[in-house]
Amino acid sequence: MKKLTASLGLILSTTSALADSPLLKDLKWGAFLDTYYAMDFNRPKDHDREYTTQPARSEEFNINLAHIDVTLKSEKTRGRLAVQYGNSVTKNYSAEPQDAKIFQEAYIGKKIGPQTWIDAGIFLGNIGIESWISKDNYTYTRSLISEYTPYYSAGVRLEHAIDLKQSVQLQLLNGWQNISENNNGKAIGMQYKNILSDKFTFTYNNFLGDEEVVSTKPRFRTYHNFVFHYLASEKWQFLAGVDFGHQSAQDSKGVNSWYATSLNLRQVIDQTSSLTYRAEYHNDPHQSNVVTKTPNGFEVISSSVNYDYKFDEYTMWRTELKGFYSKDKIYPAGVKYFNRFDGLLVTSLSLSL
After folding, report:
1. Whole-number Cα distances in Å, 307 to 128, 265, 304, 332
2. Please, what is the end-to-end C-alpha distance for the chain in angstroms?
3. 123, 105 Cβ separation under 8 angstroms
């Protein structure tokens, strides 16, 4: 809490220092609070849910994510400083030093060409089909694809708008979701986005780098993420992701691979409410990215239904029912048992300013 208080003070002092600057008019404050209650049907020991970062706890009222941010957008300068707190922060930043955990984003960018920007610092990860910020997603929980790709990255990114519909982004990063470097190498990433029509958008993301992810030795990793977003009508919307990962084998020569897919169908009922249906499959038999210590690794089928209700432009109530089936018994049940099945019922009330 002391670190969070100090960071809020930093934001306030920075804003105060800019009081006489013409940039002040380009600053925008924001805040988000996501409270929740979740029931894991297996009732895991100590209330900790495995293989997820949100919602991370079962059978208790808690905060998934809270952040306060200030954003700068001017003709030639941009940036965002956001400090955060919550269960998802604790889980995602478990390998980071304490000082780094409070920063959701902390970057500054400069315009270096008519359609080109360069940003440096900490920024949200671009791989996956969903944002860390739950209100921006079709469902309250993130898909398995998004859970096992970086929530955040640290480094430098170059963004260029090819035309009104196409953009490309190149990144030089510390690595796969790490602010504090864990080896002597750097990673690279790329994004290509194409708004093919008013209804259809295609995005491709990738990652290449040596990573100490699930072993003590760096292993070269490549990851490819394909995102398809289709607005069929005012009532029906589709969001799909297909991912492929490859990594040098952990204990032998050769290459291990894994893949995942997620399909979301959103039904807009009216201006205040909507339903989303999701089906997904994730297969990491070699445990290159998800460690289970079981014979078949992380092979999981999941489906869910999510209901949203917007009270107004600031507050939203979300409820999601989700089920999982694993090839191996990986889900903790009670004190000492494990199940192939797991179920989740979560309800959330969020405030966005």
Report:
1. 22, 12, 10, 27
2. 22
3. yes
DSSP string spanning 76-116? Answer: SEEEEEEEEESHHHHHHTTTS-GGGTTEEEEEEEEEEETTE
Which residue type does 130 have? Answer: E
Separation CA 61–CA 114 (nearest Å) = 48
Q: What is the pLDDT of residue 24?
A: 73
pLDDT at position 192 is 98
The residues with which 178 forms a beta bridge, in sequence order, are none
Measuring CA to CA, which residue among 158, 148, 79 is closest to residue 291? Answer: 148
Q: What is the Cα–Cα distance from 191 to 203, expressed in whole angstroms?
A: 7
Q: Which pLDDT belongs to residue 213? A: 58
CA distances from 266 to 33, 139, 205, 226 (A): 24, 9, 23, 19
Q: What is the pLDDT of residue 17?
A: 56
Quickly count helices (H) and strands (E) in the chain: 3, 18
- In angstroms and rounded to an integer, the radius of gyration of the C-alpha atoms of the chain is 20
If one counts the domains in the chain, the total is 1
> Which residues span the domain enclosing 129?
2-352
Tokens 């048992």 -> residue: 337
**Using one digit for the tens of pLDDT, what is the confidence trace for 227-270?**
999 999 999 999 999 999 999 886 667 889 999 999 999 999 99
Q: Which residues contact 17 (CB under 8 A, 6 or more apart)?
A: none
Q: Which of 139, 134, 150 is nearest to 307 (CA)?
A: 139
CB 109 within 8 A of CB 121: no
Q: How far apart are alpha carbons 268 and 275 in whole angstroms?
A: 6
Q: Are strands 61-73 and 187-195 parallel, antiparallel or unpaired?
A: unpaired
What single string gives the DSSP state of each residue in 242-309? EEEEEEE-SSSSSEEEEEEEEEEEEEE-SSSEEEEEEEEEEEETT-SSS---STT-EEEEEEEEEEEE
Q: Is the preceding omega at residue 55 within 30 degrees of 0, hence cis?
A: yes
Residues of the chain with pLDDT under 50: none
d(CA 301, CA 280): 6
CATH code of residue 256: 2.40.160.10
